[in-house]
Amino acid sequence: MKKLLSLSVTIFTFFLAQAQEFSNKDLQSLVDAERAFARMAKEKNTRDAFLANLIDESISFSPGITKAKPFWEKLQPGTDWLYWQPVYADISTSGDFGYTTGPWSYSKNKKETPTAFGEYITVWRKQADGKWKILIDAGISHETYAVDGHTVTTSNIPSQPSKPAAKSFKDELTAIEDSFIKESPTDILKAYTHHASAEIRFFRQNKFPSTSVEEVCKTSDVFSFTPAETIVSPAGDMGFTYGTVNIVKQDAGRQKTGNANYLRIWKKENGVWKIVADMIT
Predict the structure, then answer these.
(1) Residues 187, 116 share a domain
(2) Residues 101 and 211 in one domain
(3) Which of 76, 80, 146, 264 lies deepest, with the highest CB count within 10 Å?
């Protein structure tokens, strides 16, 4: 009997350890919300999973910048399956604003081998009823990559709530974003070097996520960003900006111009706004 009891305690402890990665309960609840979102897509369908987690303000890149809820409402529930899991998460000191990133895969149905892969970023905000809801959802595609088997990690740089200033938190971050945008067309490496966190993660189409500013900025392309919106946590220590970006490429001596969307997540580090996640679709 004692052996059975001991075995039961060991099994319970093991599963508890698997379920509880973070001492920060708010951060853990954010990760749990992302996992529940993915689980609903698996157990029910992708459309209904999104609609259960969206609010009227939710934005997605589908592929243009659009209100996410009407986009998903127009679709019919299908058998295709979008599967994903978080591998990184961070949260504001307010405990009600944060984001997750991780790999995704797409299959025509749950029994077939995935045919597409990529990475996502989801920004979440906790509602008055305590439920996490999506503010923005965006992703890129890249080559085959396993969705399962990854440990969820978080930032080694703790957030610190901002002190109220003459400007609102939103105006403050908007000004920083504008500063970055002005630097970008003339020297993209300088702009990112100036504003990037030591923990920055870059997300670029057809490439795996990168943490190297030099690697990502080793390009002759010219980037011109046009911001659409800035949203900041109540604590003023984390926020995001998104909009469109015009990219001018040199191809065999000729210029080619294309447009994309961007999502940039900022975090206050020692009182200074730094980019912690940067996605161009």
Answers:
(1) no
(2) no
(3) 264
CA angle 2, 8, 9 (to 5 degrees): 90
What is the domain range of residue 50? Answer: 18-142
The residue ranges of the chain whose pLDDT is under 70 are: 1-20, 164-166
Eight-state DSSP code of residue 95: S
Tokens 């970008």 correspond to what residue?
184
**Structure-block tokens of residue 10:** 């060991």
Of 269, 265, 249, 245, residue with least CA distance to 257: 249
Residue among 73, 44, 46, 45 nearest 58 (CA): 73
How many whole angstroms separate alpha carbon 244 and alpha carbon 63? 11
**pLDDT tens, residue by residue, 21-71:** 899 999 999 999 999 999 999 999 999 999 999 999 999 998 789 999 999
Cα 214 to Cα 216: distance, rounded to the nearest angstrom:
6
Question: Minimal CA–CA distance to 97: which of 57, 59, 127?
Answer: 127
Per the domain annotation, does 271 fall within a domain?
yes
Query: Do the domain assignments include residue 73?
Result: yes
CB 71 within 8 A of CB 50: no
CATH number of 26's domain = 3.10.450.50
- How far is the C-alpha of 140 from the C-alpha of 224, rounded, in Å? 20
Instruction: Read off the pTM.
Output: 0.89
End-to-end CA distance of the chain: 58
Helix crossing, 46-53 with 25-43: angle to 10°?
150
What pairing do the DSSP bridges indicate for beta strands 196-204 and 272-280? parallel
Strands 54-61 and 97-107: unpaired
Domain assignment present for 47 = yes
Number of domains composing the chain: 2
